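User: Hey, quick favor. My workstation is busy. Could you predict this chain's structure for me?
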Amino acid sequence: PYAAWALPLALLAAVAEEALFRRAAYGALQRHGAIVAVGVTALTFALVHVPLYGVAAFPVDLGAGLLLSWQRWASGTWTVPAATHAAANLAMIGVCVAPLLAWLGKDAPFGHSAVEGILTVSPVAAALHASATPGFVDYQLLPINWWVMGTVSVILLVVLVVRTRQLYRPN
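Assistant: No problem, here it is.
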């Protein structure tokens, strides 16, 4: 029953966070200049996530905060980073959780190699494999998962930055 709430809560959280950080906070800080508004909202965004995800996630959250704040500056509206944040949360559910559904069948009906291929894209499955969780040690997920996820992340980041620039700074 709780899994059914994952998608709507992830989307609601993204929009609520962007309303707070990129609409209210950025709007209040904008009079001090774009660098201050971008920097302070990105730093605050990252700090707010530390209690939930730990200090190890701080650099990732700071990077996400900088990207979302830059989008706010480039587009002039908070709805662009809200859409990006919602899409990112949706993608995380799809990438992290959905592949685990193939594992639930214990290789049926797909077979071991098919399940291993599906799990390769899931950072959660890779973490479970790395921590020697029973049921995941039988699959070879590392280091291929790191290479796949890292490459996809870099490509998507470049596309996102290029498209945002094209859309909001055409000159």
